[in-house]
Specification:
This protein is an alpha/beta fold and about 500 residues long. The chain contains 14 helices and 20 strands. This is NAD(P)/FAD-dependent oxidoreductase.
């Protein structure tokens, strides 16, 4: 598209989940109003808009799963459900005046760095832009992963991923197969068990499950948090502190997790009387290696007479017959895939083309890596919220997001201080040094004790989790160190002009 047809903005933010909305709010608080938030769907919310399956809820306490600058004293439960979290995101969108900046149904199809003009060309489903800075908050839990199962096309019933729930399906009396035993599946099974005729759960690996101490937040508590905000802040601080103290068990002393394993096994025994079923539900890896799940109704649901557990992964579909890797067969009218997301190979990376015509997917072919989880080498003025090695195994991702927003704010200040047209590109040496530091620390963690998890990429490297406390991550992202970046300026003579002059001289 011709240059004059593109709208130019200072910052283009991709996504309107917690990361994208947080970036937008932080930009406004920094006095930057020349930005757009590009959202592929028709409303805000990110993963909390997309996941509407029965029982969908957060496994982080409500008062910790919110922005520190936008506390919600009215959370109805100690662990909030999807509708309440989505309503919260709609509320902060209005409260902080983000609506005018939203561009809905504007899926980003292409991002290309212009090395002459030092800006990004942004192509979307509803128009094109140029932007000095791009903040990618597309999120790692945005694009569902569905395994390739032989014969799946022959299945006559409904097939969908948990993040694309088909609410038109009447589950009453239906035989429903749930594939996977991750965080979504353990909420779906008890959510549909009372209504479905039969539920068959295909389990590749049994998860460790701890009780979820959820309860209604009393009217007195809500009144107190509203009238005395310091009480809500104190509650949040206690929740945060407890999780910070747990970090060393994950990162330095995995052997201490045996105590937690005993609690999980006790939790299972209280609900599962059948010793054979307990044996199939008992993991053979250290707790914490895979994501620890919280549920107080998962095991009771598995003990119900209309629920079957197949302790093997789905290998083949023959019409309405599902065949597990161990040969077990089950009949189904609907298949629900709770098989996670494209975390280590995010599709957005295929659409981002940086310096030298290299895509982010190509740059990350050997594994994702970004300076302080934010800046990838060769992609100037491109920042990722919830980037490589920023995930958490035991606390709230909002804490990580807010730290990266601090980094974004200082990044913009540095550009202002440099003056004129400028861009910052992370030095490869700085990215490599940071990545070596993170991977070296990862060696002692519980996540690297040998289990198969979505934290590991195709090369077996943990490129997802942060091997430290949230307080430490906040320290290392407090400000931009210009020594870790190359400062780019526009070429004195545009390359197109040089090319034309060279051609003329040759004649």
């Amino acid at each position: 598209m011709a240059e004059q047809m593109r709208q130019h903005v200072r910052v283009a933010v991709i996504g309107s989940g917690f990361g994208g909305l947080g970036a937008a709010i932080r930009l406004r608080r920094e006095g930057i109003t020349d930005f757009v938030v590009l959202e592929r769907a028709g409303s805000v919310g990110g993963t909390w808009r997309d996941n509407t399956y029965p029982g969908c809820a957060c496994d982080v306490p409500s008062h910790l799963y919110s922005f520190s600058f936008a506390p919600n004293p009215a959370w109805p439960r100690s662990f909030s459900g999807q509708p309440h979290i989505r309503a919260y995101l709609e509320h902060v969108t209005d409260t902080f005046g983000i609506r005018p900046h939203l561009r809905l149904n504007a899926e980003v199809r292409q991002l290309r760095w212009d090395e002459e003009r030092l800006h990004w060309e942004v192509g979307t489903a509803s128009g094109d832009y140029t932007a000095d800075v791009v903040v990618s908050a597309a999120g790692p839990l945005a694009d569902p992963r569905v395994p390739e199962i032989p014969g799946l096309d022959s299945f006559p019933g409904k097939v969908f991923h948990s993040a694309r729930w088909d609410h038109g399906l009447d589950l009453r009396g239906k035989r429903v197969a749930v594939i996977g035993t991750g965080a979504s599946a353990i909420q779906i099974v008890p959510g549909i068990q009372p209504e479905a005729g039969r539920v068959t759960l295909f389990q590749r690996t049994p998860p460790w499950v701890l009780p979820r101490f959820d309860r209604p937040v009393s009217a007195a508590e809500r009144w107190l948090h509203t009238r005395l905000p310091v009480t809500a802040a104190l509650r949040r601080g206690v929740l945060w502190g407890i999780r910070e103290l747990q970090v060393s068990n994950f990162t330095k002393h995995p052997e201490r997790m045996r105590v937690v394993e005993k609690l999980a096994l006790s939790h299972m025994r209280k609900a599962i009387a059948d010793p054979a079923l307990r044996a199939r539900l008992t993991p053979d890896y250290r707790i914490g290696c895979k994501r620890i799940l919280l549920s107080s109704d998962y095991y009771p649901a598995l003990a119900r007479p209309n629920v079957d557990l197949v302790a093997s992964e789905l290998a083949e579909v023959r019409g309405s017959t599902l065949v597990a890797a161990d040969g077990t067969e089950a009949e189904a009218d609907a298949i629900v895939f709770g098989t996670g997301f494209r975390v280590t190979d995010m599709p957005i990376a295929e659409r981002v083309t940086g310096a030298g015509g290299v895509t982010l997917a190509e740059a990350w072919k050997g594994g994702m890596a970004a300076l302080r989880g934010t800046s990838a080498a060769g992609f100037p003025n491109f920042l990722t919220v919830i980037g490589p090695n920023t995930g958490l195994g035991n606390s709230s991702m909002i804490l990580i997001i807010e730290s990266q927003l601090n980094y974004l704010a200082d990044f913009m200040r540095q550009l202002d201080t440099l003056g004129g047209k400028a861009a910052l590109d992370a030095r490869p040496s700085a990215v490599n040094a940071w990545n070596r530091h993170v991977q070296r620390r990862m060696e002692r963690t519980v996540w690297n004790t040998g289990c198969r998890s979505w934290y590991l990429d195709a090369n077996g490297r943990n490129t997802v989790v942060w091997p430290g406390t949230t307080a430490e991550f906040r320290r290392v992202t407090r400000q931009v160190n210009l020594a870790e970046y190359q400062v780019l300026r526009p070429p004195r003579t545009p390359r197109r002009a040089v090319s034309a002059a060279t051609t003329e001289a040759a004649r």
